[in-house]
Amino acid sequence: MESECLFCKIAAGQIPTEVVYEDDDVIAFKDIRPQAPVHVLVIPRKHIPAIAELADEDASLVGELVVTARKIAAAKGLTADGYRLVFNNGPGAGQDVYHVHLHLLGGRRFTWPPG
Ligand code: 5GP
Ligand code: ZN
């Protein structure tokens, strides 16, 4: 745990958060500023600042993030209409929190290309 990292604090239960799912490796919680009717962040408990800093051995952990998002999307009834999964990496992509997180967005239609 990085003591100054917001998402490490959330994973440690130190900040009030609406947790959607958690296990030994990952935790999922509602985004505080939702951009869609469903907006959940899925994060590893392990502190990894950004996708750019992933190690090869993190591959299965990232797979767990995606599979967890798929399960949450299914539980929320999003499978038929579809949903969007997003990793923002670095300043140009709008990454604000430097602890890897997968955005699960659903419940409305999304445009492409993204903004
Ligand atoms: P990024 O822009 O880094 O990809 O996304 C960071 C996300 O974290 C944003 O969607 C933002 O609303 C969310 N966020 C920032 N601070 C908090 C917080 O304290 N609690 C929760 N639940 N979400 C947060
Ligand atoms: Zn962290």
What can you tell me about this protein's structure?
20% of the residues lie in helices and 22% in strands. With 115 residues, it is of the alpha+beta class. The chain has one domain (6-106): HIT-like (HIT family, subunit A), CATH 3.30.428.10. A 5-stranded antiparallel β-sheet has the order 1-2-3-5-4, covered by helices on one side. Strand 1 (19-22) and strand 2 form a beta hairpin. The radius of gyration is 14 Å and the shape is globular. Bound molecules: guanosine-5'-monophosphate (5GP) and zinc ion. Zinc ion (ZN) is lined by residues 2, 5, 7-8, 47, 99.
SS-based class: alpha+beta
| Largest sheet, spatial ordering of strands | 1-2-3-5-4
> What is the beta-strand fraction?
15-25%
**Count of individual domains:** 1
Topology-level CATH name: HIT family, subunit A
- Specify Rg, calculated over alpha carbons: 14 Å
Query: Can you tell me the CATH architecture?
Result: 2-Layer Sandwich
Helix content: 10-25%
The name of the CATH superfamily reads HIT-like
Unreliable residue runs: none
Mean pLDDT: 97
Query: Regarding CATH, which class?
Result: Alpha Beta
Could you say which overall geometry the principal axes of the C-alpha atoms support? globular
Largest sheet: 5 strands, antiparallel
